[in-house]
Amino acid sequence: MNLAKKLGLKKGTYLFSNCAKMPSKMKCRLLLMGPVRQKKDLLAAGIEHMIKVHKHKRSPKLYKEAAGMLERVTVA
Ligand SMILES: [Zn+2]
């Protein structure tokens, strides 16, 4: 199965964050993904998730942390 096709992804470079890769007691598996040009939208969603679910405090440091969680993947 081609996951990109299954998800209906168009060709391009995407950013994603995968909570399953982060150490967390709650075993969160949320996956957030968006095209590079919508990095701001992705970060905004990720930060809300980190605050609401992972109980982080909103701060400039959190923005850096969220940005650091993003990984790049290209759909060819
Ligand atoms: Zn999470």
Features:
binds zinc ion, 76 residues, globular, 3-stranded antiparallel beta sheet, single chain, alpha+beta, 3 helices, 3 strands, 37% helix
Describe this structure in words.
This protein is of the alpha+beta class and 76 residues long. The chain has one domain. Helix content is 37%, strand content 22%. The protein has three helices and three strands; from the N terminus they run αββααβ. It has helices at 3-6, 39-52, 60-69, and strands at residues 12-18, 31-35, 71-75. Strands 2-1-3 form a three-stranded antiparallel sheet, with helices on one face. Helix 2 (39-52) crosses helix 3. The radius of gyration is 13 Å and the shape is globular. Zinc ion binds next to loops.
